[in-house]
Write a structure and sequence with these properties.
- It is built from 4 helices and 5 strands.
- It has a domain of 95 residues.
- A hairpin with a 2-residue loop joins strand 4 and strand 5.
- Helix content is 35%, strand content 28%.
- By secondary structure, the protein is of the alpha+beta class.
- The chain has a 5-stranded antiparallel sheet.
- Keywords: Signal.
């Protein structure tokens, strides 16, 4: 259930950032069938980690399947570009979304990753630093910590 809520929050933030209302056609849906289809096929996933080089045992802050791609270099490039475009579109809303997931955090640095077809996560080159949260709300960072 928690993953479905994260999907809905991410989808809503992207739609809002792109100036689309919720009455249009949906790129992503939050039902279990869609999630299972993405994990079973050729899919592009975007994730946020607190490191640029996550190990397999690291837990992502957020993971989202965004589209189907071919499992080749072109599919990988398309996936990376899509993850970057979605992150940039949701840039203004991303701190609030992340804080709602994290609760309390001080001076967090987050890194955007992408992967296709279950491969290893690859850092996209986009990161955001100095995110501070208190009680799931964005706050100004304390420079002493």
């Amino acid at each position: 259930m928690y993953k479905i809520i994260v999907i809905v929050i991410f989808w809503y933030a992207v739609r809002t950032a792109c100036g689309e209302d919720s009455s249009g056609s949906q790129l992503l849906t939050a039902d279990e069938t869609t999630t299972a289809e993405y994990h079973a096929g050729n899919n592009c996933e975007c994730s946020v980690y607190n490191t640029s080089e996550p190990c397999p045992d690291h837990t992502a802050i957020m993971v989202q399947s965004v589209l189907h791609v071919e499992c080749n270099e072109e599919g990988e490039a398309t996936c990376t570009d899509t993850c970057k475009a979605l992150a940039l579109a949701a840039h203004d809303k991303s701190p609030k979304i992340l804080c709602s997931l994290l609760g309390d955090y001080n001076n967090l640095e987050v890194f955007l990753h992408s992967r296709i077809c279950g491969s290893d996560w690859r850092f996209t080159g986009l990161k955001r630093g100095n995110l501070c949260c208190q009680k799931s709300e964005v706050i100004e960072c304390d420079q002493e910590n």
